[in-house]
Amino acid sequence: MDGTSIIDALILGIIEGLTEFIPVSSTGHILLAGRALGFENPGKMFEVLIQLGAILAILVVYAGRLIQLVRTLPSDPTSRRFVAAVFLAFLPAAVLGVLGHRIIKEVFFESPALISTMLIVGGVILLIVDRIRFEPRYHDVKEFPLWLALRIGLFQCLALVPGVSRSGATIVGSLLMGTDKRSAAEFSFYLAMPTMAGAFAYDLYQNRALVTGDELMLVAIGFAAAFVAAILVVRSLLDFVSRHGYALFGWWRIVVGLLGLYFFVYRA
Question: Which of 6, 73, 160, 184 could pair with 174 in a Cys bridge, judged by C-beta atoms 3.0 to 4.6 Å apart?
């Protein structure tokens, strides 16, 4: 492990933390950035394992709410239904992620053309959805019906293709099915906890033979950077989208996607 690798891990960790909870595809960003930096890691595990930093960031920010949720589970039907809703939303991507793990890692992760195209397509969709004047029926994530949560989970499956964005897919799906912008983003936060924790655990298990001391050190650096950056995003995102919507993220995706096509496909 040299100084360049450490700096690369730090940069990629910051990118992960800044992009994980906004609808721009953190995986797409760090895969393209890693390719630009010449960053190599066995099994492409670094990109998944540093998500633990973002998971811990949201656990820290939402600690009070999560503790309250756990305390009220035995006595409050609303809390139990909410936990069931998050679990239902988590299941589809968990099953498909396990079944398709090899093709995701060995094919999708290795295609900058696919990643860049998905960034552009997702950006256009965000711009279109952001202009539609919906009449929201759901404003509180704890009041989401179970059928709604399951359908949001099906939208999350689209994010198994890097460049789509886990948060982007769930947010767009939520908006199309009647939630307001704030609750769509907030449910995406809650859904990220089991989804990202599951991806972390499964990927670590799959790549356990490849883990070395140097690899763990780079993951630790990326994790720390992702943790700090993600805390800043989580604390400000809900207010931002409530006021400004998602158009900025749509344009950002399109710009990054076009740059990806130019540098990694056209000039390759």
Answer: 184
CA distance readout (Å), 266 to 36, 95, 106, 122:
14, 35, 22, 21
pTM of the model: 0.91
Backbone angles phi, psi at 138, to 5 degrees: -125, 125
- What is the rounded distance in angstroms from the CA atom of residue 6 to the CA atom of residue 1? 7
Q: Which residue has the tokens 């096509």?
A: 261
User: 11 is written with which tokens?
Assistant: 């940069």
145 burial via Cβ count (<10 Å: 0-12, 13-18, 19+)? middle
The structure tokens listed for 224 are 């720390």
pLDDT in tens, 176-195: 999 998 999 999 999 999 99
Cβ neighbours of 60 (radius 10 Å): 14
- Cα distance between residue 116 and residue 162, in whole Å: 9
Give per-residue pLDDT as tens, 99-115. 999 999 889 999 999 99
